[in-house]
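Students often ask why we bother encoding 3D structure as a string. The short answer is that it lets us treat folding as translation between two languages. Here is a chain of 469 residues written in the first language.
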Amino acid sequence: MTVADGSDAHTDLLRAYEKSVGVSGDGSEFVTAPWGNRLSAVLPVRRLASGAVAVFASSVDRYRRSVGLDTTAWTLSPDRIAASFSGDRMYRENGVPVTAFAELSGFFECADGWVRTHANYPHHRRALLQAIGLGEAASVEAVRSRIGSLGSDVIERRCARAGAIAVRLRTEQEWAEHEVGAAVASEPLVRSSLRSDTALRSDFVGTQQYPLHGIRVLDLTRVIAGPVASRALALLGADVLRIDPPDLPEIEWQHRENGQGKRSALLDIGTAEGLNTARLLCAQADVLVSGYRPGAIENLGFLPSSFRPGIVCGSVSAWGDSARESNARQNTAWLQRGFDSIVQAASGIAVIEGSEDDPGALPAQALDHASGYLLAACIVDALTATRMSGSGCDVSVSLARTASWLTSAKDRTEHPEAASIPGPNCTDTHGSTTTALPALAVYSHYPFPAHPLGSHAPSFDDDRGPIST
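And here it is in the second language, the structure alphabet:
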């Protein structure tokens, strides 16, 4: 069902997802509304955002039908979707907004163009300074000067090898001709494959509002895309336990923005004791969500299906398998790490939204959020499929493939009006913290606000749920 101003923006991505996974969304109904200037951009960000949320909603319908629950029409609210996708801009602590990017995260002019860096985390900042030959006390001006003296390819290679994050600004044509860019474009929108390991499924204990009640999710993701996926599962009633390494704490406001509905524990899986605990947790879980680079978690000796047959394994990465395969072929260190802003710069989006001389950005970190909802949908559809067969399933998404869908989508706007964010009616305040409401308008809030990072034991039996506000 589509009403108001012909707003069928969600249908393109919905059909692409259904084709990629091999499912049908014919039984889902959507009520839409005019977008105004929400998520206004040259590229059809609204199609991406509303489509990703519709994909997730449609997967919920399939799951509900598989367990005998009713389905109803979903309202795709532009305000609620835009607020959720703009969570960093909606967030307030004691009424004060936050700065989403650190001083060394951004565009820097170099000897032959521009590079985009990401140094929000202290270890990435240190790696960036080391890669360009500066000490840890270097000023922004010193960084700008040093980068200005170096070529973009030199910076990109040095940073990739040093574990830092920087990418040369590319046009979409340059990205299409790049080995990784071409490989990403040829991949399916999402990957989903059943495995041979099987296990009996527990009895369904969910409800209409919380169909995933009783499903345990072990969350090994960080930053935005992965946490958005696990937050979406928590919204549906899943029991989500997020694990973070104690030596790499998450940015606090970022965790509070996307940690709603989850437990939070610290665990070093790089140690024998921590790895054993993680294996025990995984053996109790129905779903594992990982944000590790492809192959990284397996290299630690963490093979989920070997100690939890039938588990659904979901993963999100910046570049998917293409970067790893390119590295293996060329013995290079192409951008194993990445973030939304980095993928925008590499894939041509920053040039499309600005120019080669003045790069721009999308009105929200839409690659992260859309990839998160696509991953959540994959996981829900995998749970639907495995309820019947008991087979394990691997699903994955990448920011680069989501970007490829966006740049190839129809209906660009040559001169878009400035994007605006929704008002306070799309936020929820608990104590001193204000966050965006869920993108799915049928839910008035998340099950409970985010706990402080690491406030739980690494156990599904630590049942501290809602916190006082």
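Translate back mentally: The CA atoms of residues 187 and 401 lie 7 Å apart. Keep this in mind for the problem set.
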